[in-house]
C-alpha cells in the first residue's frame, strides 16, 4: 500500500470513529459518559485533519470520505437501540487499533500517544469520582455490549438449522406439506430451546451476582478497612496515583454505604448492581424472536410454491440471507464483509448439502 492509499485508509477510519462517537454522545443519557464519547470524537477529528493535510500536500485530496456502512449501522444502533449495544464493540476496536500509528512516521508522537490514552480520557471524564469511573468501566464490561452479537448469532442459528432441516426433508422426497410441518416444528422447537436456555443462563447469573453482592455488603459492614484497601489497589491498578486512589476509596467507603457497595460491586466483581446481567425474560424473548426470524427464511418459498421450484427458491433465499448474516457479523469483528459473508454462505450450503444428501439416501432406503 503506497502512502496516499494508507493516508486515505487512516482518514476513513477516523471519519468512521467520529460518526460513531458523535452518535454515542448524542444517545447517552449520562452526562459524564456523553462527555467521554464527545472527547473521543474530538480526538478523532484532530487525527482526521492530520491525514487530510497530508493528502492535500500530496495533491491527492478529493473530498472527505463518507462514513462506511459499518459506522453508519453502529451509529444508528447507538441512537435507536442504546449506547450500551455498541460500547463493547467500539472498546474492542480501540484495543485492536491502539498501535495502528506506531509504524507510521507521519503520525509523529501525538497520534500514537492519543490512541493509547483513550482509556485515560474515559477515566478523566468521570472527574475524580470513583463511582463515575465504575459506571463507565462497568458499562463497557457488562450490560448490552453483547446484544448485537447475540442477535446476529441467534438469527444465524435459526437460519442454518432450519435450512438444513428443510433440505433434508426435501431430499427424502417429502412433499410441500411435509416440508412445512417439519420446518414449522423445527422453528418452534429451536426457538423454545434457545429461549429456555437463555432464560436459565441469565437467571442463574442474576442469582449468582445477587449472592456475590450480598457477600460484598456483609464484608463492607464487618471489615470496611480491608474493603477500602482493596478498592484503593484496584484504582492504582487502573492508573491512579496512590494518594489519589486512597482518597477516592476512603471517600466512598466512609461516605454513603450504597455508593460504596455500588463501586465495590463494579470494580471488584465487575457486576452492575442495577442490571445484574440483564433481564432473563428480555433475553429469552429476544433469543426466541431472533432464532424464529432466521428459521422462517427457508420456509417462505414453500408457502407460495412446491416441488423442485420451492426447493431451489428456498436454497437461493437462504443463501442470500446467509451471506447477509455473515456480512453483518463484521460490524462486531471489523473484518472484511465480503469474506465473512462468503464464508458463512459456504458453511450454510455445506450443512444443507449434507442433510439433503442424507435425506436422499434414507428416502431411497425407506422406499
Model description:
Helix content is 81%, strand content 0%. With 367 residues, the protein is mainly α. The protein has three domains: 123 residues; 140 residues, no CATH class; 56 residues, no CATH class.
Please name the defining characteristics of this protein.
81% helix; 367 residues; mainly alpha
| Tally of helical runs | 16
Biggest β-sheet: count, sense, barrel?
Answer: none
Percent of sequence in beta strands: under 5%
Name the overall outline: flat
The N- and C-terminal alpha carbons lie at a distance of 61 Å
Are there runs of 5+ residues with pLDDT below 50, and where?
A: 122-145
State the assembly state of the protein chains. single chain
Count the strands?
0
Could you say which structural class the secondary elements and strand pairing correspond to?
mainly alpha
Mean of the pLDDT scores? 80
Order of helices and strands: HHHHHHHHHHHHHHHH
Topology:
Layout: H1 3-27, H2 31-57, H3 69-80, H4 83-97, H5 110-116, H6 118-125, H7 130-141, H8 147-171, H9 176-222, H10 224-237, H11 242-253, H12 257-269, H13 280-296, H14 300-304, H15 307-333, H16 337-366
Briefly, what is this?
This protein is mainly α.
